[in-house]
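I can't quite decide. Please look over this sequence plus structure tokens:

:::
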Amino acid sequence: MPHLTRAKAGFASTGVRTALGVPGYAHPLLAPTEWAALTRPGTPLDWVVLDVAAGPGSRPDPHCLQAAGRLAAAGVRVLGRLDTAHDARPVGDLLSDARRYLDWYHVGGFLLDRCPTERTALPAVRRTIGALRAISEGAHLVLGHDTHPHPGYAENADQLVTFRGSWSDYRWSQVAEWTADYPPDRFCHFVHGVPRGHLDEALRIARWQGAATIYFTDRTDRCGRTDPWETMPGYWDELVSRVGTGVSE
């Protein structure tokens, strides 16, 4: 049994809407099936991350333009990936990438990947968030910490990624107590290497720990040699069916 925590004070542990946040597939030219599946009716998506070339790229990519356009037409929010490099990148560089995402792909927000977690970095991240909101009013901002950061970060973004890692780590994970002060739709969990037979267990862990946006895959990182998020889970339809209302065949 995993180390589950008590239900969040003030927020029910049942009846929470769980949806999928897709952390980013391979380029649409290399993964056309994956990108096409995201527009199928009934797919419970919160958002999909677009990473053209470790960012928006140097010029508009026609395949990414098409993929992003189809998602937008289907009512799916697309997020541009901004690599903060653990607060090592200047805010000017991040804003330059953000403007290209906005101008070319009309994204609805951003995933600030490799976001720092320390309290000391919070003022810089807060300034970056303020600058992003200034150039894109209403942008949905997700901070990709991949672990529990200082609680002050929760006051500055729409969502936090508080777990990204393997199933072997996730099933024994514990949630930070301060997350009980926030509703589940503030938190995201991305888990790779989840066996098909453990999908229900993984969903129970996410719900008990108060994460309403999730992504589970049976793909693995092969000890850091591959990206487990590049391809669709082998049980994609089953995952969709369990999380939401199912997909149309």
Remarks:
- Helices lie at 32-37, 62-73, 91-105, 122-135, 167-170, 199-209, 236-243.
